[in-house]
Protein backbone atom coordinates (compact mmCIF):
# COMPACT_ATOMS: atom_id res chain seq x y z
CA UNK A 1 0.00 0.00 0.00
CA UNK A 2 1.28 3.43 -0.96
CA UNK A 3 1.02 6.17 1.53
CA UNK A 4 -1.24 9.12 0.68
CA UNK A 5 1.74 11.36 0.03
CA UNK A 6 3.42 8.90 -2.39
CA UNK A 7 0.12 8.33 -4.17
CA UNK A 8 -0.09 12.08 -4.62
CA UNK A 9 3.40 12.21 -6.15
CA UNK A 10 2.53 9.39 -8.54
CA UNK A 11 -0.66 11.12 -9.63
CA UNK A 12 1.22 14.40 -10.11
CA UNK A 13 3.83 12.57 -12.21
CA UNK A 14 1.14 11.03 -14.39
CA UNK A 15 -0.53 14.40 -14.89
CA UNK A 16 2.84 15.95 -15.80
CA UNK A 17 3.59 13.17 -18.31
CA UNK A 18 0.14 13.48 -19.89
CA UNK A 19 0.64 17.22 -20.16
CA UNK A 20 4.08 16.80 -21.81
CA UNK A 21 2.72 14.18 -24.24
CA UNK A 22 -0.16 16.48 -25.12
CA UNK A 23 2.23 19.37 -25.67
CA UNK A 24 4.49 17.29 -27.92
CA UNK A 25 1.46 16.07 -29.88
CA UNK A 26 0.17 19.64 -30.30
CA UNK A 27 3.58 20.82 -31.48
CA UNK A 28 3.82 17.96 -33.96
CA UNK A 29 0.39 18.81 -35.33
CA UNK A 30 1.43 22.46 -35.57
CA UNK A 31 4.65 21.58 -37.43
CA UNK A 32 2.74 19.28 -39.78
CA UNK A 33 0.20 22.03 -40.56
CA UNK A 34 3.06 24.47 -41.12
CA UNK A 35 4.85 22.04 -43.43
CA UNK A 36 1.65 21.31 -45.36
CA UNK A 37 0.91 25.04 -45.75
CA UNK A 38 4.48 25.65 -46.94
CA UNK A 39 4.21 22.76 -49.42
CA UNK A 40 0.85 24.04 -50.71
CA UNK A 41 2.13 27.62 -50.93
CA UNK A 42 5.20 26.62 -52.93
CA UNK A 43 3.16 24.46 -55.28
CA UNK A 44 0.60 27.21 -55.90
CA UNK A 45 3.04 30.10 -56.25
CA UNK A 46 5.14 28.44 -58.91
CA UNK A 47 8.34 27.42 -57.20
CA UNK A 48 10.53 25.13 -59.24
CA UNK A 49 11.27 22.53 -56.60
CA UNK A 50 10.08 21.60 -53.20
CA UNK A 51 13.44 21.66 -51.52
CA UNK A 52 14.18 24.63 -49.26
CA UNK A 53 17.75 25.06 -50.52
CA UNK A 54 16.64 25.77 -54.07
CA UNK A 55 14.24 28.68 -54.08
CA UNK A 56 13.59 29.49 -57.70
CA UNK A 57 10.30 31.15 -58.43
CA UNK A 58 8.99 30.76 -61.96
CA UNK A 59 6.88 33.56 -63.37
CA UNK A 60 5.18 31.64 -66.14
CA UNK A 61 3.43 32.91 -69.22
CA UNK A 62 0.09 31.13 -69.34
CA UNK A 63 -0.70 32.08 -72.94
CA UNK A 64 2.63 31.64 -74.72
CA UNK A 65 4.75 29.57 -72.38
CA UNK A 66 4.90 26.30 -70.56
CA UNK A 67 6.07 26.49 -66.98
CA UNK A 68 6.39 22.73 -66.68
CA UNK A 69 9.16 22.68 -69.31
CA UNK A 70 11.27 24.90 -67.06
CA UNK A 71 10.52 22.72 -64.05
CA UNK A 72 11.48 19.62 -66.02
CA UNK A 73 14.69 21.22 -67.24
CA UNK A 74 15.64 22.07 -63.64
CA UNK A 75 14.78 18.54 -62.54
CA UNK A 76 16.88 17.18 -65.40
CA UNK A 77 19.84 19.31 -64.27
CA UNK A 78 19.39 18.04 -60.72
CA UNK A 79 19.72 14.47 -61.94
CA UNK A 80 22.36 14.85 -64.60
CA UNK A 81 24.55 17.80 -63.67
CA UNK A 82 24.80 18.44 -59.93
CA UNK A 83 27.40 21.27 -60.05
CA UNK A 84 25.27 23.24 -62.55
CA UNK A 85 22.14 22.58 -60.49
CA UNK A 86 23.91 23.84 -57.36
CA UNK A 87 25.13 26.90 -59.24
CA UNK A 88 21.62 27.57 -60.52
CA UNK A 89 20.13 27.30 -57.03
CA UNK A 90 22.84 29.50 -55.53
CA UNK A 91 22.69 32.29 -58.10
CA UNK A 92 19.15 32.36 -59.46
CA UNK A 93 15.94 33.04 -57.58
CA UNK A 94 13.54 34.13 -60.32
CA UNK A 95 12.89 32.79 -63.80
CA UNK A 96 10.63 34.90 -66.00
CA UNK A 97 9.02 33.28 -68.99
CA UNK A 98 9.17 36.31 -71.26
CA UNK A 99 11.07 37.71 -74.22
CA UNK A 100 14.33 39.28 -73.22
CA UNK A 101 14.56 42.57 -75.07
CA UNK A 102 18.20 43.49 -75.30
CA UNK A 103 17.46 46.92 -76.71
CA UNK A 104 14.64 49.44 -76.88
CA UNK A 105 11.73 48.03 -78.87
CA UNK A 106 11.18 51.40 -80.55
CA UNK A 107 14.68 51.39 -82.01
CA UNK A 108 15.25 47.73 -82.80
CA UNK A 109 12.62 45.27 -83.91
CA UNK A 110 11.69 43.02 -80.96
CA UNK A 111 11.80 40.09 -83.41
CA UNK A 112 15.60 40.15 -83.17
CA UNK A 113 15.43 39.31 -79.47
CA UNK A 114 12.46 36.97 -79.70
CA UNK A 115 14.63 34.47 -81.52
CA UNK A 116 17.08 34.33 -78.63
CA UNK A 117 16.59 31.62 -75.99
CA UNK A 118 16.55 34.15 -73.16
CA UNK A 119 19.05 36.07 -71.06
CA UNK A 120 20.48 36.73 -67.65
CA UNK A 121 19.59 40.15 -66.21
CA UNK A 122 22.74 41.69 -64.76
CA UNK A 123 22.51 43.04 -61.24
CA UNK A 124 19.80 40.56 -60.36
CA UNK A 125 19.37 36.88 -59.67
CA UNK A 126 16.87 36.62 -62.50
CA UNK A 127 16.75 34.84 -65.83
CA UNK A 128 14.42 35.49 -68.76
CA UNK A 129 13.43 32.45 -70.79
CA UNK A 130 11.73 32.85 -74.17
CA UNK A 131 8.24 31.37 -73.86
CA UNK A 132 7.70 28.06 -75.66
CA UNK A 133 4.49 26.07 -75.76
CA UNK A 134 6.05 22.76 -76.78
CA UNK A 135 7.58 20.54 -74.17
CA UNK A 136 9.47 17.88 -76.08
CA UNK A 137 12.50 16.05 -74.75
CA UNK A 138 14.89 17.95 -77.01
CA UNK A 139 13.46 21.25 -75.80
CA UNK A 140 13.99 20.25 -72.18
CA UNK A 141 17.62 19.43 -73.00
CA UNK A 142 18.06 22.74 -74.87
CA UNK A 143 16.54 24.62 -71.96
CA UNK A 144 18.85 22.84 -69.51
CA UNK A 145 21.79 24.05 -71.59
CA UNK A 146 20.40 27.61 -71.61
CA UNK A 147 19.91 27.52 -67.84
CA UNK A 148 23.50 26.36 -67.49
CA UNK A 149 24.76 29.29 -69.59
CA UNK A 150 22.63 31.92 -67.85
CA UNK A 151 23.37 30.70 -64.32
CA UNK A 152 27.04 30.79 -65.34
CA UNK A 153 26.61 34.45 -66.32
CA UNK A 154 25.01 35.12 -62.93
CA UNK A 155 27.86 33.46 -61.07
CA UNK A 156 30.40 35.38 -63.13
CA UNK A 157 28.60 38.66 -62.42
CA UNK A 158 28.24 38.19 -58.66
CA UNK A 159 31.73 36.74 -58.22
CA UNK A 160 33.09 39.89 -59.86
CA UNK A 161 31.10 42.20 -57.58
CA UNK B 1 5.92 35.38 -16.76
CA UNK B 2 5.62 39.13 -16.30
CA UNK B 3 2.39 40.52 -17.69
CA UNK B 4 2.69 42.95 -20.59
CA UNK B 5 0.32 45.84 -20.31
CA UNK B 6 -2.18 46.61 -23.06
CA UNK B 7 -0.54 49.94 -23.86
CA UNK B 8 2.83 48.31 -24.54
CA UNK B 9 1.16 45.70 -26.79
CA UNK B 10 -0.66 48.46 -28.65
CA UNK B 11 2.54 50.51 -29.13
CA UNK B 12 4.40 47.40 -30.31
CA UNK B 13 1.66 46.53 -32.83
CA UNK B 14 1.58 50.14 -34.03
CA UNK B 15 5.36 50.18 -34.52
CA UNK B 16 5.17 46.97 -36.58
CA UNK B 17 2.41 48.43 -38.77
CA UNK B 18 4.39 51.66 -39.25
CA UNK B 19 7.54 49.68 -40.13
CA UNK B 20 5.62 47.65 -42.74
CA UNK B 21 4.01 50.76 -44.18
CA UNK B 22 7.34 52.60 -44.28
CA UNK B 23 9.05 49.67 -45.95
CA UNK B 24 6.24 49.48 -48.50
CA UNK B 25 6.31 53.15 -49.42
CA UNK B 26 10.05 53.86 -49.38
CA UNK B 27 13.23 52.64 -50.96
CA UNK B 28 16.27 53.13 -48.76
CA UNK B 29 19.84 52.18 -49.49
CA UNK B 30 21.99 53.47 -46.65
CA UNK B 31 25.24 52.30 -48.25
CA UNK B 32 24.68 54.45 -51.32
CA UNK B 33 22.86 57.25 -49.53
CA UNK B 34 19.75 56.61 -51.58
CA UNK B 35 16.30 57.50 -50.36
CA UNK B 36 13.20 57.45 -52.55
CA UNK B 37 9.50 57.48 -51.90
CA UNK B 38 7.43 54.93 -53.78
CA UNK B 39 3.83 55.85 -54.18
CA UNK B 40 1.65 52.93 -55.14
CA UNK B 41 -1.63 53.63 -56.79
CA UNK B 42 -3.97 51.08 -58.29
CA UNK B 43 -0.97 48.89 -59.01
CA UNK B 44 -0.48 47.97 -55.40
CA UNK B 45 3.05 46.73 -55.87
CA UNK B 46 6.41 48.18 -55.00
CA UNK B 47 8.54 45.06 -55.45
CA UNK B 48 9.09 45.57 -59.17
CA UNK B 49 10.34 49.13 -58.62
CA UNK B 50 12.62 48.07 -55.79
CA UNK B 51 14.01 45.18 -57.83
CA UNK B 52 14.53 47.48 -60.81
CA UNK B 53 16.43 49.96 -58.63
CA UNK B 54 18.57 47.21 -57.10
CA UNK B 55 19.37 45.88 -60.57
CA UNK B 56 20.42 49.37 -61.69
CA UNK B 57 22.59 49.70 -58.61
CA UNK B 58 24.76 46.76 -59.59
CA UNK B 59 24.48 46.75 -63.37
CA UNK B 60 24.37 50.45 -64.27
CA UNK B 61 25.67 52.29 -61.19
CA UNK B 62 25.94 55.70 -62.87
CA UNK B 63 22.22 55.71 -63.73
CA UNK B 64 21.43 54.47 -60.24
CA UNK B 65 23.35 57.34 -58.65
CA UNK B 66 21.53 59.83 -60.88
CA UNK B 67 18.14 58.34 -59.91
CA UNK B 68 19.06 58.56 -56.23
CA UNK B 69 20.24 62.13 -56.58
CA UNK B 70 17.51 63.58 -58.76
CA UNK B 71 14.32 61.60 -58.24
CA UNK B 72 12.36 61.91 -55.03
CA UNK B 73 9.15 60.04 -55.82
CA UNK B 74 8.40 57.10 -58.08
CA UNK B 75 4.70 56.64 -58.65
CA UNK B 76 3.33 53.38 -59.95
CA UNK B 77 0.17 53.12 -62.01
CA UNK B 78 -1.05 52.28 -65.47
CA UNK B 79 -2.79 55.66 -65.77
CA UNK B 80 0.40 57.17 -67.15
CA UNK B 81 2.30 55.42 -69.89
CA UNK B 82 0.04 52.40 -70.05
CA UNK B 83 0.69 48.85 -69.01
CA UNK B 84 4.39 48.35 -68.47
CA UNK B 85 5.17 51.92 -69.56
CA UNK B 86 5.91 55.14 -67.75
CA UNK B 87 5.78 58.90 -68.00
CA UNK B 88 7.03 62.18 -66.68
CA UNK B 89 4.59 65.02 -66.17
CA UNK B 90 7.03 67.88 -66.33
CA UNK B 91 6.98 71.09 -64.36
CA UNK B 92 10.45 70.46 -62.87
CA UNK B 93 9.03 67.99 -60.43
CA UNK B 94 11.33 65.20 -59.43
CA UNK B 95 8.58 62.62 -59.76
CA UNK B 96 8.45 59.88 -62.34
CA UNK B 97 5.67 57.45 -63.14
CA UNK B 98 6.49 53.81 -63.80
CA UNK B 99 3.91 51.15 -64.44
CA UNK B 100 4.67 47.83 -62.84
CA UNK B 101 1.85 45.95 -64.52
CA UNK B 102 4.25 43.55 -66.21
CA UNK B 103 6.13 42.87 -63.01
CA UNK B 104 9.44 42.44 -64.79
CA UNK B 105 12.73 43.72 -63.47
CA UNK B 106 14.53 44.45 -66.75
CA UNK B 107 11.76 46.58 -68.22
CA UNK B 108 11.27 48.35 -64.90
CA UNK B 109 14.94 49.40 -64.76
CA UNK B 110 14.82 50.59 -68.39
CA UNK B 111 11.67 52.65 -67.83
CA UNK B 112 13.14 54.31 -64.73
CA UNK B 113 16.16 55.34 -66.85
CA UNK B 114 13.87 56.55 -69.67
CA UNK B 115 11.78 58.75 -67.36
CA UNK B 116 14.90 60.10 -65.69
CA UNK B 117 16.02 61.25 -69.13
CA UNK B 118 12.74 63.20 -69.54
CA UNK B 119 13.27 64.74 -66.10
CA UNK B 120 16.67 66.03 -67.23
CA UNK B 121 15.24 67.34 -70.50
CA UNK B 122 12.67 69.27 -68.50
CA UNK B 123 15.24 70.65 -66.05
CA UNK B 124 17.53 71.73 -68.85
CA UNK B 125 14.66 73.49 -70.58
CA UNK B 126 14.95 71.24 -73.61
CA UNK B 127 11.90 70.05 -75.54
CA UNK B 128 10.71 66.54 -74.83
CA UNK B 129 12.44 64.23 -77.23
CA UNK B 130 11.41 60.60 -77.07
CA UNK B 131 14.21 59.46 -79.34
CA UNK B 132 16.88 60.79 -77.00
CA UNK B 133 15.30 58.90 -74.11
CA UNK B 134 14.85 55.74 -76.18
CA UNK B 135 18.60 55.79 -76.60
CA UNK B 136 19.05 56.05 -72.82
CA UNK B 137 16.85 53.06 -72.01
CA UNK B 138 18.35 51.23 -74.96
CA UNK B 139 21.79 51.62 -73.39
CA UNK B 140 20.46 50.31 -70.07
CA UNK B 141 18.86 47.28 -71.73
CA UNK B 142 22.00 46.51 -73.70
CA UNK B 143 24.06 46.73 -70.51
CA UNK B 144 21.75 44.61 -68.41
CA UNK B 145 20.71 41.79 -70.71
CA UNK B 146 23.39 39.17 -71.11
CA UNK B 147 22.62 36.57 -73.77
Topology (SSEs and partners):
The complex is a heterodimer of chains A (161) and B (147).
Chain A lengths: L3 H41 L12 E3 L7 H14 L1 H10 L2 E4 L13 H4 L3 E4 L4 E4 L7 H23 L2
Parallel strand pairs in A: 1-2, 2-4
Antiparallel strand pairs in A: 3-4
Helix pairs in contact in A: 2-3, 2-5, 3-5
Chain B lengths: L5 H20 E4 L4 E6 L7 H13 L1 H10 L2 E4 L9 E2 L7 E4 L6 H19 L6 H15 E2 L1
Parallel strand pairs in B: 2-3, 3-5
Antiparallel strand pairs in B: 1-2, 4-5
Keywords (chain B): Membrane, Transmembrane, Transmembrane helix
Keyword list:
heterodimer; A: 161 residues; alpha/beta; four-stranded mixed β-sheet; 5 helices; 4 strands; B: 147 residues; Collagenase (Catalytic Domain); elongated; transmembrane helix (chain B); transmembrane (chain B)
Please explain how this structure is put together.
Chain B: Keywords: Membrane, Transmembrane, Transmembrane helix. Chain B: The chain crosses the membrane at residues 7-24. The complex is a heterodimer of chains A (161) and B (147). Chain A has 161 residues and is an alpha/beta fold. Chain A has helices spanning 4-44, 67-80, 82-91, 111-114, 137-159, and strands spanning 57-59, 94-97, 118-121, 126-129. A 4-stranded mixed beta sheet of chain A has the order 1-2-4-3, with helices on one face. In chain A, helix 2 crosses helix 3 and helix 2 crosses helix 5. The longest helix of chain A has 41 residues, at 4-44. Chain A starts with a helix and ends with a helix. The mean pLDDT of chain A is 86. Chain B is elongated and about 65 Å long. Chain B has a 5-stranded mixed beta sheet. Chain B has one domain (27-146): 3-Layer(aba) Sandwich (Collagenase (Catalytic Domain)), CATH 3.40.390. Chain B has helices spanning 6-25, 47-59, 61-70, 105-123, 130-144; strands at residues 26-29, 34-39, 73-76, 86-87, 95-98, 145-146. With 147 residues, chain B is α/β, with parallel strands linked by helices. In chain B, helix 2 crosses helix 3, helix 2 crosses helix 4 (105-123) and helix 4 (105-123) packs antiparallel against helix 5. The model of chain B has no long low-confidence stretch (mean pLDDT 88). In chain B, 35% of the residues are buried. The interface between A and B is medium-sized, with 26 and 28 residues. Strand 3 of chain A pairs antiparallel with strand 6 of chain B, so a sheet runs across the interface.
Amino acid sequence: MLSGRRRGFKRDGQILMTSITKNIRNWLIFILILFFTWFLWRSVTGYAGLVPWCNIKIHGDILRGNESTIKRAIASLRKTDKPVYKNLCANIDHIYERYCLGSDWNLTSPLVWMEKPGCYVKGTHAIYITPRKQSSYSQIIDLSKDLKIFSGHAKEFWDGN
Amino acid sequence: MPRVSGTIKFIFALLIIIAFWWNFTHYVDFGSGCYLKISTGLEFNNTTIKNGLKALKYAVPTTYRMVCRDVTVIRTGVSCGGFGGGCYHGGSRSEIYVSVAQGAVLESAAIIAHELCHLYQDRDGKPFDENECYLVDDAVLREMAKF
